[in-house]
Predict the structure.
Amino acid sequence: MPPEKPLQEKQNNGSPAGPKFAIRTMKTDAEELIKTTKPSLIQTLGRETRPLNPNTRPAKKLPIRLIALIIVILLALGTGGFLLWRSVSITATPTTNKIGATLARTTPPSAYFATETSRTISVKKTDRAEFLRLMNDAWHEKEREGTVKRIVLKVQDGPNERFATLTDFFDLWRVAPPQELLDLADQNLMLFMYAGATGNRLGLAVKTRDQERTFAAMLRWESSLLAQITPLFFDERTDTIVAPFEDRTYRNIDWRYLKLSQDKDLGIGYGVFSASNIFLFTTSKETTETVINRLFDAR
């Protein structure tokens, strides 16, 4: 019997083809795995072994406790800085100067009587020209008749600024009153202007420690008083005066007056309001009487 032909030869000769069987080897299996696996093992291994780029490294998240601690530190620093600023600010703004006068940065001394308006003037103690200019400007301001305007005078004395005393006021006018009058006066001086029917009139009020001695000092000053205080009349012209001071009484308050004009309410008046120990000095009769009325109202 002749030997049989191989299977492949039979198929080539036209015999019916049966199912084809592929011969698997390790090489073919490996190639198939590379084609069908996504992502491939090689790519996976490449990503795992590829070094990380420091520029693309994700940022680490801060722990919540660390964030809270930073916020607390910042708040503490802010609060401490504010308290330090406040303490320095308060220290740099004193309330009294070396002679005990209230500084101009605080509230002005209380007025002895009511006023309708107020104006503050601040000048250097050595700048008399500026003082006269500002006072003249205040005197020319038109006010409603019968009203009183308070003048709050601040004096810059070296590095300090304080409210003016009676001594400061007379020094700026170049007026030399009796020293006893200055020694008896309180530190709190009140300046004012009264709007009368014939113009504005200047006046002052200050407490005194001794009524009788104050009155006696003014009596001694009467002989030279008019010659010294002429600047306090501003632009007003006085008549030739031959009569002396005369005694006046208004609402049981004794005061002295020197009339300086026949057609205007202009003169020199002074007295002590005994109920409050307040020394008054004005430049008209109507001003004196108006202030006495207001002092009674203020009691």
The CA atoms of residues 207 and 276 lie 8 Å apart.
